[in-house]
Design a protein that fits this description.
Strand content: under 5%
Order of helices and strands: HHHHH
Structural class: mainly alpha
Number of strands: 0
Helix content: over 70%
Largest sheet: none
Length: 143
Amino acid sequence: MIYKNMARRFRSLNSTEEDNKDELLRQLRLKNEALNDAIAKFDSQVEAAINEFWVDVESHVDQLNKAIENINGFVVKIKEEQEKYYYNCEDRWRESESGKAYQLWRDAWDVDIEEIYLTCPSIEQIDEVEIDTESFEGLPHES
């Protein structure tokens, strides 16, 4: 008799076990939903923080590029004056040691500082997590 009851017992879930299975499945779905809500909140807040702080970075990039523009403008002005002076001098002077030294000095001013360009970094957003509830849910209740 015990063997017969055990055989039937292992051939199907009883109502308590079915209720437990349903509750476990419900809890799994709730926890999965809560996790996905937390992920969505995290992604949103990280993106908002990046955008908020990026404004400050952009402002400093603009200020730096303005300083670079001022330097490059100054260099161009000096170069123009150097060229004007150099070509207003006689050929004899340009070929002299003084003229050659001047030309080296003038050539040293051949600089152009490049402005910088940055793009806002992006964080790879976390995808929603999907739990395979169907495998558990689809388990048969009996053999």
